[in-house]
Amino acid sequence: MNRLPALRRAAVREWGPLFTAVRQRLAARGVRALALTLTAVALTAVIQVTQNQAWGYGPVRNLGAVRAEDPLPLALLRTPLSLFVPALDLPVWGALAQILLVFGVAEVCLGRWRTLAVAYGATLAGTLYARVGVALGPGTFPGLPASDAQVVDTGPSAAVVGLAVYVCHQRRAWFTGALVVLAMVVEVLVKDNLAGREHLAAIAAVLVVCGVREWLGRRRGARNPGTAVRTCGPAEGGPGPGRRR
Question: What does the UniProt keyword field contain (predicted)?
């Protein structure tokens, strides 16, 4: 039996709405639809070059390096920039590719401000989890060893994972979203470290937000039966494909 038609239909159901939204948005606004994404890629590249210079390593650490042992106000101030500070022990092209792909799709679907909010919220969830995990200690599953308090926590991975799950929920791409979650669970099972745990914390935070939005949408739908709940329309910041400038 030829399963290709069935697989094709499944792929269209899963990714068709997302692909259509991205294509229409890019056709309508061009590169302007990716202003945030391109800025984030450029900022990450500049920070990578800077932190690899003798004169730049210290300032980047002081402005964007977050540790669980840092005072909370200082960590909160550093967290926004830490999102764009690539990890020194990982290839920078991986971070740039993640930002370009996931931030790009999210910016087209959600708009730049919601994309920033979800990215920062996911990163912040991971940062706060690290503090709670160290406080709990290694005796429980959420707990972390005391040595993790000194681990420098930077990079876009938590934001990327959170955005991927959020967009999958908005576009009802359930299979893809489940794959993202499963991949992060497997990551922790294979290599249980701070980064993997923070990815799970980011996913948990985003799922809570998605659940609340779904509940509020259903309540609005119950009050106004004729009003459809919009899950992911044209991003803010410009006209959609069918609107005049």
Answer: Membrane, Transmembrane, Transmembrane helix
Least Cα distance to 205 among 142, 159, 171, 155 occurs for 159
Contacts of 161 (CB under 8 A, 6+ apart): 122, 180, 184, 199, 202, 203
Residue numbers of the chain with a pLDDT score lower than 50: 1, 228-245
Domain formed by 4-223, architecture: Up-down Bundle (1.20)
* Cα distance between residue 158 and residue 91, in whole Å: 16
pTM of the model: 0.86
72-82 and 112-136 helices, crossing angle to 10°: 140
* Structural domain boundaries in the chain: 4-223
